[in-house]
Design a protein that fits this description.
- The chain is α+β, with helices and mostly antiparallel strands.
- Helices cover 41% and strands 32% of the residues.
- A 4-stranded antiparallel beta sheet has the order 1-2-4-3.
- The longest helix has 13 residues.
- It starts with a helix and ends in an 8-residue tail after the last helix.
Length: 95
């Protein structure tokens, strides 16, 4: 639910060469963002915490994002579609 409400995900082409996925879980409270980061870590998903203006973002990239895409039960149709594309990306290549 947190991802569906306050998260975002996108898939783009890096230098027109290979697909790159990015996802963010956002929260206005630092402690809550750290808690989200720790909850993901319990699933062996490492997210980087970054402050951006009035919010804190737990960022996911590479293999951590692919793992999140495989386990995240998103009910948002557009976000689910992008997560499915990310989960289907080849595991070889840049991370």
């Amino acid at each position: 639910g947190v991802f569906d409400g306050d998260g975002s995900v996108r898939l783009r082409q890096y230098d027109d060469k290979w697909p790159v996925g990015e996802a963010y879980l956002s929260h206005s409270d630092l402690q809550a963002a750290r808690h989200l980061q720790l909850l993901l870590k319990r699933l062996s998903i490492v997210g980087q915490l970054r402050a951006e203006r009035a919010v804190y973002k737990v960022e996911l990239h590479g293999s951590n994002l692919r793992q999140f895409a495989e386990v995240a039960p998103s009910r948002h149709p557009a976000k689910r579609a992008v997560l499915d594309q990310i989960a289907a990306l080849p595991r070889s290549g840049p991370d």
